[in-house]
Specification:
This protein is an all-alpha fold. The chain has a two-stranded antiparallel sheet with strand order 1-2. The C terminus is likely disordered.
Amino acid sequence: MTGRLELQQAAAPLSGPSRAWFSVPARIACLLIAASLLSGCGSFAWFGNKDEEVTVSNDPPNVIYGKADTLIDKGKYKDAARAYEEVDINHPYSPEARKAILMAAYAYYKGGKYDDAIGAADRYLTLHPGTKESDLAQNIIAMSYYDRVLDPRRDQTNARKALGAYDTLLQRYPESRYAGDARNRARILRDLLAANEMVVGRYYLRHNNFLAAINRFRTVVTDFQTTEQVEEALMRLTEAYMALGIVNEAQTAAAVLGHNFPESKWYRHAYGLLGKRGLQPQEHEGSWITRTWKGAGSQT
């Protein structure tokens, strides 16, 4: 993605106020704007408190937009984002306003202001759904979460949000130019989230909290069947269910593991655990594992 995007321009008519009555604060604001226009001493007037400054620009929208493009080309992303937002704030009905929102999102993302990038991209999707640039806005949201993903031992809130954003992109825009990257990153995120469930599940298992461990391993089997973690998850389910004396589920977990991954080292471990009790892997139709696993019944 380049610093400048060729986005389709959209304009809406500007309707004037239906009444000529103004509140006192509105009159003050108008006087300040008028004073700025008459003074000719600068391009912008500022009013409001220090934390909530509002920019009033005398420049036409195309000029402000051009300044923002120059800033982004220089790598001044924070300043560029603010300039793009000035177009939307001061000239909301101009042809440049729509693409300025999206460019503000991109500039915020490039500047590492991820929450601001998500906010701007969300605003674009709310105001302009279904446009040809909507997939880019969705991709900016996903990337803003993805770039903050940590290792599997840490909280995975951003990973879950990133995965949700990429899944949304793939569902809504399957032919998007960003779909390939979205699929690859979604696969990485699923592996990461599955690994995180395994880390927590192993912890519970070591501390003999078998029910809590089962819940974690069950999540992997239910939600992340395509990841590498699922083999170990099925073996750990065999281990945890055996510890609780729930033999049918232990046998089913081992059987599903053996049907789908017969050469896996984890299947050898599961088979050995059952063998110590004189048991064999066997699927039971009432098991949630049998119901959940894709194609498990047909492979029995």
